[in-house]
Specification:
16% strand; 192 residues; four-stranded antiparallel β-sheet; 2 domains; alpha+beta; elongated; binds zinc ion
Length: 192
């Protein structure tokens, strides 16, 4: 703010657009720090017994860290990791609760990626996301999250009316179609 006012005094002109973007970037960074702090310190990870898919009790095996891109920028996330010895598999309940299993993108970012990917080319979507929301991704990431195909708005409207939001959300926005077969079950043949 001070710099913008100084420049106005020196040059006699004021670049409101530059100031808008600068303030937005600052607020994103501030919000990102808040989110990171909240999710790492205020958030209580699952307590008690965590079971695997076969219902074995899994034991805590330390913390795992990952980077997560949110609508407020990239944050660092710590999560408790649980391991099942008989199955040789791990679970991270916090990821499940936050809906970020196997994803480096938050639900908010995934929704944006899916939205731009369904309406325009993946490269145009990438550019719009950066300009409009300050989110920097690659066009490949837009393509992957948007499901690798262009969903028509008609498809989306049709499903929105018929499917529970959680199902619609997970199918359209998750990285892997194998996570949820709800659309395939509800509309056999329509989406493949
Ligand atoms: Zn197990």
């Amino acid at each position: 703010m001070d710099r913008a006012l100084r420049e106005r005094g020196q040059n006699g002109s004021f670049d409101l657009e530059a100031l808008e973007f600068a303030v937005r970037d600052s607020l994103h960074r501030l919000g990102g720090s808040f989110l990171e702090q909240f999710l790492n310190t205020e958030w209580q990870d699952t307590v008690g017994c965590v079971r695997c898919k076969q219902q074995h009790a899994s034991r805590p095996a330390g913390k795992r860290e990952k980077k997560l891109l949110t609508v407020l920028g990239e944050i660092r996330l710590e999560r408790d990791y649980f391991h099942c010895a008989p199955c040789q598999e791990g679970r991270i309940p916090k990821d499940e609760e936050l809906d970020i299993v196997g994803s480096r993108f938050s639900p908010g970012v995934r929704r944006m990626l899916a939205r731009v990917g369904s309406k325009e080319s993946f490269e145009e979507g990438r550019q719009d996301l950066e300009f409009l929301a300050g989110i920097v991704v690659t066009s490949k990431q837009v393509e992957r999250i948007a499901g690798g195909r262009r969903w028509s708005s008609l498809d989306l409207e049709y499903c929105r009316e018929l499917l529970p939001p959680s199902h619609l959300y997970c199918r359209f926005v998750s990285c892997s179609p194998t996570d949820c077969g709800c659309l395939e079950t509800s509309f056999p043949g329509k989406f493949h």
